[in-house]
Amino acid sequence: MDITIRGADGSLSRVLFGPLASLPDLAVTARSVIVTDPTINRIYGVSFPPCPVVEVPRGEAAKSLAELESLYGRFLELGLGRDATVVAIGGGTVSDLAGFAASTWQRGVDFGFAPTTLLAMVDASVGGKNGVDFRGLKNQVGTFRQPRFVLMDVGLLRTLPDIEFQSGMAEVVKHAVLAGGEYFELIASARPRRAADASNEALERIVEGSAHFKASVVGRDEREGGERRKLNLGHTVGHAIEAATGLPHGHSVAAGLGTVCRLSRRLGRLKVAEADRAVGLITDCGLPSSIAEAARLAAELGRAPGDGGPAVRQDGPDLRARIAAALTADKKRLGSDILVALPLGIGDVGIESIPVRELADFVMEAP
Questions:
Q1: Is 130 in the active site?
Q2: Which of 143, 148, 188, 210 could form a disulfide bond with 103, CB atoms 3.0-4.6 angstroms apart?
Q3: Is 118:168 a contact under the CB 8 Å cutoff?
């Protein structure tokens, strides 16, 4: 199944399923450059089309102004012109960096993605958001510009470490709560914790359903003026958890989703039974559903916060204060309030303006 997204500028972005080896059918190799990380190059480099390959760091380290400048330098050395295609092969951080670099190089050149992680397949590669971090804050510098193509090869997920697969499942669960209906039931029935738990056909159904849902939202609201804000479900608190603990993005979003479900329940917006269904699905997929669980996992993994501070050892007032403080940097903040995506039911999410102080107070006392 191919999915098409029409950008605000009239450009078309195709999301299609097929093997990585079909990349030459999508980009002219003589005018292309591949951006990837060392691990992906080592595992899959033999399947890359014959064109220059530029390696960038793995993980969030790729999304810096220093790495962006370095990538621009390689573009210049390679003589990359306006007829070029930049192909990002890797996880979401690779596509975020490469997409932003392509969007701004010579005022914008063609680009496409071949995501290799579940998180990138269902989130970062679909929707046209490209960007880098700035001074420890996520995605502060970026663009809205659609890739010409996104090639999904779910077979690549077979080499994905379990923790990275679970991180991607957090976005899948988020989409299931947003979409409700058949897609929620599909994920509730499958609830894989490892790629090995599902067949390629099942993985394709999961990725296809998630990508189709996100693409439909983006097609109606590319620049996040209204409906697309709902895709931030779990991210307001999740990004703050990620910044304070160093926990992987997906795990942080899962804990943020569980937290905002409890907040919505307290505010009387979400019924207890619906909150329990959403939180239960998070848990069934092997993900943390609360700040306390996120802190325990971060301690087990030995993670350090994004600002380079001391590693998290336990939940407590100091950690909660760090999470509360991180809320103030959220891009959805409007003065003393912040726009929060609140679940109102399975398949029903609204946007509500909540005082930052009120949200911070809830973070200090939430499970």
A1: no
A2: 143
A3: yes
171 catalytically annotated = yes
Q: Is 205 a catalytic residue?
A: no
Instruction: Please list, residue by residue across 35-61, b when 16 or more beta carbons sit within 10 angstroms of its beta carbon and e when fewer do.
Output: bbbeebbeebeeebbebebbbbbbebe
Q: What is the pLDDT of residues 237-258, one digit of tens each?
A: 999 999 999 999 999 999 999 9
CATH number at residue 52: 3.40.50.1970
**Model confidence at 226, in pLDDT bands (50, 70, 90)?**
confident
E strand or H helix at 176, and its extent?
Answer: helix 162-179
Q: Contact 255/290 with Cβ under 8 angstroms?
A: yes
Angle, helix 272-284 to helix 249-266, in steps of 10 degrees: 170
Active-site entry in 145, 230, 239, 251: 239
CA distance linking residue 88 with residue 82, whole number of Å:
17
Q: What range defines the domain where residue 82 resides?
A: 3-159
- Statement to judge: residues 346 and 246 lie in one domain: yes
Tokens for 348, please give them.
Answer: 């029903």
Active-site residue identified among 63, 175, 205, 228: 228
The residue whose two tokens read 């960038």 is 56
Residues 167 and 107 placed together within one structural domain of the fold: no
Q: Which residue has the tokens 């596509």?
A: 95
